[in-house]
Amino acid sequence: MKKIQIARLTTQILFLALTITAVLMEFSTIKIVIVLTTVLGGVFYCGWACPFGFIQDIGSRIGKNLALVVDKYLVKFIKLFYIYAIYWQLLQLLLLQTILCV
Fold this sequence. Notes:
Layout (H helix, E strand, L loop, with lengths): L2 H23 L2 H14 L1 H7 L1 H16 L5 H30 L1
Helix pairs in contact: 1-2
């Protein structure tokens, strides 16, 4: 691994540990550090420190190592699922507005 990848991985593990500690122990100081890093860091936080990005990277590496192939029908199904979900959300909003306006 390159030095930059090792530095990024180390930062992500550190922030994952900080996030878990802040949630479990309710340390307001750590929560403030995370919020400030998110607000002031912006892209740095998303690319280097975000625990969700770390989990995504790990999942991607596992998928590449297992040589998982995404089926084209699965991709179509997922797209249809999202279209269907958005349709139902919009329909519920319209029905809610009609009920509340009456």
